[in-house]
């Protein structure tokens, strides 16, 4: 996964926000601490979950790249098999993120096309 992949996901988020603003939706701000307390443990904010997932994907990529650099330097305890497995995990996580993004965009388009 490349840095451009994460920036692509951020671009999609910005596009979704701008489309929502054009549709007349009010942009939401980050919840305050008081609002989080009132939500309770069962409620999850979608935007926070999405940002956490993107951060997780990015950290997997950074970890795989760091392990690749450690292998290139010849650090003890870093095998090529570990590097390849971590690179594949990061790649699959990125692909999953892209698929989730595609489904969210499709769902949003369907909702926007509904007649009320």
Automatic annotation (TrEMBL):
Signal peptide: none
Compartments reported by the entry: Bacterial flagellum basal body
Transmembrane residue ranges: none
Highest taxon above the source species: Bacteria
InterPro entries referenced in this protein's UniProt entry, alphabetically: FliE
Chain spans, region Disordered: 20-40
Keywords: Bacterial flagellum, Cell projection, Cilium, Flagellum
Listed Pfam families: FliE
Broad class of where this protein is predominantly found: other
Family from the record: Belongs to the FliE family.
Full protein name: Flagellar hook-basal body complex protein FliE
């Amino acid at each position: 996964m490349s840095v451009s992949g994460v920036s692509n996901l951020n671009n999609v988020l910005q596009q979704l926000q701008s489309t929502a603003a054009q549709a007349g939706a009010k942009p939401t701000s980050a919840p305050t601490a008081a609002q989080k307390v009132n939500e309770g443990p069962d409620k999850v904010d979608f935007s926070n979950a999405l940002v956490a997932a993107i951060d997780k994907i990015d950290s997997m990529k950074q970890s795989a790249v760091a392990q690749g650099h450690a292998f290139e330097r010849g650090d003890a305890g870093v095998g090529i098999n570990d590097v390849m497995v971590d690179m594949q995990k990061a790649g699959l996580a990125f692909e999953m993120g892209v698929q989730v993004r595609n489904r969210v965009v499709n769902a949003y388009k369907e909702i926007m096309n509904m007649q009320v």
